[in-house]
Amino acid sequence: MFPTPVQKQSRAVQLGYQAFLPFALILWLLPLIAVMIFSIKPDVDFTSGNYWGWPSSFEGFNNYGKVFFESAMPRYLLNSVMITVPTVIGTVALACMTGFALGVYKFKGNLLIFFMFIAGNFVPFQILMVPVRDLTVDMGLYNTKTGLVLFHIAFQTGFATLFMRNFIRALPFPLIEAARVEGVAEWRIFFYVVLPLMKPAIAAMAVLIFTFIWNDYFWAVVLTQGPESQPVTAGITSFNAQYRAAYHLMSAGSIVAALPPVAMFFLMQKHFIAGLTLGAVK
Amino acid sequence: MHSILKTSFAACVAAGIAASGASAAGHSLSGDLVIFSDMSNPAPRAVMEGMVERFGEMHPDLNIALTVIDREAYKTQIRNFLTANAPDVANWYAANRMLPYVEAGLFEDISDLWEGQISEDLASTKGALTIDDKQYGVPYTYYQWGVYYRKDIFDDLGLSEPTTWEEELANCQTLLDNGVKCYTIGTKFLWTAGGWFDYLNMRTNGYDFHARLTNGEESWQSDEVRATFANWRELIDMGAFIDDHQTYSWQEALPFMANGQAASYLMGNFAVAPLRDSGLDDSKLDFYQFVEITPGIAKGEDAPTDTFHIPTGAKNKDAAREFLRFVVSADNQTLINNGENLGQLPVNANSSVDDDKFLQQGFDMLSNKAPGGIAQFFDRDAPAEMAAVAMEGFQEFMVFPDNLEDVLDRLEAAREDIY
Amino acid sequence: MTVSPVVPTTRYTPPPRGWYKRNEIAITPWLFLAPGVLFFLVYVIAPIYQSFGLSFYNWNGLGDVRTNGEYVGLQNYNKLFGLNGERADRNFQISLWNNLKWLVLYLLAIPAGLFIALFLNQTVRGIRIYKSLFFFPFVISQVVVGLVFSWFYLPNNGLFTIMTGWVGIEIRGGVLGNPTWATYGIIAAGLWPQTAYCMILYLTGLNAVDPEQVEAARLDGAKGPKMLWYVIIPQLKPATFIAFVVTIIGALRSFDLVSIMTGGGPFGSTRVLSYYVFEKSLSERGLQYGYAAAVAVILFLIMLVFISYFLWSMYQDEKGAR
């Protein structure tokens, strides 16, 4: 193990390390802690210049109450859910299929298609922006959640295919061959042999894509416009325009917007990290 | 600027008949009327919803669907919905701001609606909605710009409303000597600096020069423009503006005035409501017209006009026209622009201006003290691309006045490319 | 996928193998690929070609490009680079320059991530919680990160401003209001989640470091930085590679933070290419779609260098795997 475990070092080093950990963490998360404190402060703290000091009174309920009951935030949150969930389902479904095709079969063009997915996945969004917007407008899907979902599925399929394909490649191939010898149809092999083995990959993909899509801002700005379809990342800017300079409310709104992926991360931590660190170990 | 004070009794009656006739004769409207609005701030939103409600009562068979979109977001989204899912009625702005949409054939020619009495009632804003002798929308409100100031601070320091540049500078020096900044401003979103340029240029070189400049007919490197910037620089060098203004929005600049760190604000009349909200009552807050700079030059004023249009893709154009007639009718204009609603100036000559100190002053100023002419605002008079480059330059100049030559070179280069 | 072979089965004669059945292994992958590839072609590949096409037009985005636009050949590119008697676009140069700063400085996330990973790679009580909390910034939307940092940088009242004030540094206009510092301020905000990402990559990598090699090296007397450089880092190569790829992509996709924190200001000094494309087309005073497409094409070409590199090294791996 590297670096040398502290257990093997002197008592002083051990204690020092243990003491330094929380300190380092607080320093690292300082911006976040500040926002959390902002969100429970009263209005008057900001007008009187007490930005970073202790809250003069606890207004957490008031501030969050305003966010939930007097603004369009719940609407935006709901939109985010209705955009994110179908995207996750759609992407995982498509990527399982493409990953299966690219991972199991040897055929001409296999690597080419695989590389197309990878390359497309790294393309800067801006080169897609105007054509995708026009396409969405032409289909009558501008400013609908569906329009956003369709694009997200298409784009995320690139990344998810990379993941799924590599995962399938690592599966024991004899399993598939055995099934073939038995005369099992190929699509049955997919459903009954490969898919059950892919559960961890599906879980990892699902949490990752959930986070990516929930946090998407650019496409939300390009393809949607109002509270009826905008997700919370874009909604927060109109929310902020409404409460400009009201830091306590903007902070509360930001925290509400950030919470779902955070919760997802803590619930599914293992899968999340497995997904992100794909390829970091050989 | 036509005075609505010269309204004759006859005109009043005629308008009344026309207004009631229009709605009565208008065969009962039915179907859907889809309205997209950018009136998203609380007060305008209430006004918009109120108008829809009253119009709905007049036409019970009409199914009105109102969508209010955030005012900033609306500015970019209008392009999408005009081509993709056009509403029947949409908000926008007059003059150069509507030009691209007219040229692309996205706004309906509604010259027919402007025929007759309505043209007289709305004479003051007709020009701003006319392109090639055709009208493409109707106004619903406009407002004055000018200097809003802390009367109590002025009184404490023995200052009075200035009328000349020397008085303005002297006042400012006194304020600075007492630790108060002369002007608050937030230039993060650039346009507020455009307001300063409009006034300094109109006062230094006159309305006509300013109009030619925003039309691309004058050089940004001319002596006249340099003179304008020289005047601006006097204020900057004095330290007249609050520090770090490039990081604030116009709303974030309000507290400096509310808590007395700055004494005045060159702004549109929409600043009055938030200033009052922050605790400045009429004894503490007052207004004066931007001072004279070059003696004898006829004063021009900024008075941006907000508008309604019918997209060419609209489905229920009959109902849309009727709605526009309703919007500009004298009664509705009086109502929506009063102090409890928009708190701005009515566009119809037969409407009455609310008994509000700022509206009365603004109305008087625009009617009687602006012989030079009425401009819309820098980013509505100049083409979008020019406005973007120029206002960025203004912001840079306000922070680094020494960069002026560089800024002017850029603006001149942009002018040659754009027009 | 509904692929049910329609083969008439009679009881006694063995069913003749249908065309599908005979070619099952050849056809199946294409059937499975079809929906994914179709989506991808329509939404990703085709738009790239369309943007290339758009970049030869002068079009204000209203109506249709073929009817309302005007074909201008390479003029948009000439304007960008100041060729053929056009004036070079200063804003494009600023964006390009800032993109370079982003690319270089963003890479700091890699050593920073490694450093934190080394710091946290222990087995003391509660270390798991610490690791998750250190990773936390990556999960948060960039919009929120941007907001938080812009409050951090507020002139007068920002915590950062107050802290720099203690050591006597005063940044005029606050970090984000100062054209010299604003871009660095935004990059610092971006480094926060990016470092967390690199950290998690390295933590996973460190987990897989071969303990025997480490012990062997220890017996040879290697320790500290030497050990790190000669034994550990080579073993972390896959993690470093991924960290490099995601960091480069992150740097070139810096739209969200710029948009939220400064909107390209003050006076356009924080523009990057991705933001400039948006500004020239979909923003309030944009309306130059063809020109914006040309900028997007340049950004794409820059990215293509890295994409090619990435694909090339993947190709080497694939060859090795076969």
List the helices and strands and how they pair.
The complex is a heterotrimer of chains A (282), B (419) and C (322).
Chain A: H1 11-28, H2 30-39, H3 43-47, H4 60-69, H5 73-104, H6 110-122, H7 126-138, H8 145-169, H9 173-181, H10 186-197, H11 199-214, H12 218-223, H13 232-242, H14 247-267, H15 269-276
Helix pairs in contact in A: 2-14, 4-14, 5-8, 5-11, 5-13, 6-8, 8-11, 9-10, 11-14, 11-15, 13-14
Chain B: H1 9-25, E1 31-37, H2 42-58, E2 62-68, H3 71-83, E3 89-93, H4 99-103, H5 117-121, H6 123-126, E4 130-131, E5 134-135, E6 138-142, E7 145-150, H7 151-156, H8 165-177, E8 181-183, H9 191-214, H10 223-238, H11 254-258, E9 262-268, H12 272-277, E10 285-288, E11 300-302, E12 305-309, H13 317-328, H14 330-336, H15 357-368, E13 373-375, H16 378-381, H17 384-399, H18 404-418
Parallel strand pairs in B: 1-2, 1-3, 8-9, 11-13
Antiparallel strand pairs in B: 3-12, 4-5, 6-12, 7-9, 7-10
Chain C: H1 19-22, H2 24-54, E1 57-58, H3 65-68, E2 70-71, H4 75-81, H5 90-106, H6 109-120, H7 127-135, H8 142-152, H9 159-166, H10 174-177, H11 182-207, H12 211-219, H13 224-235, H14 237-252, H15 255-261, H16 273-281, H17 289-321
Antiparallel strand pairs in C: 1-2
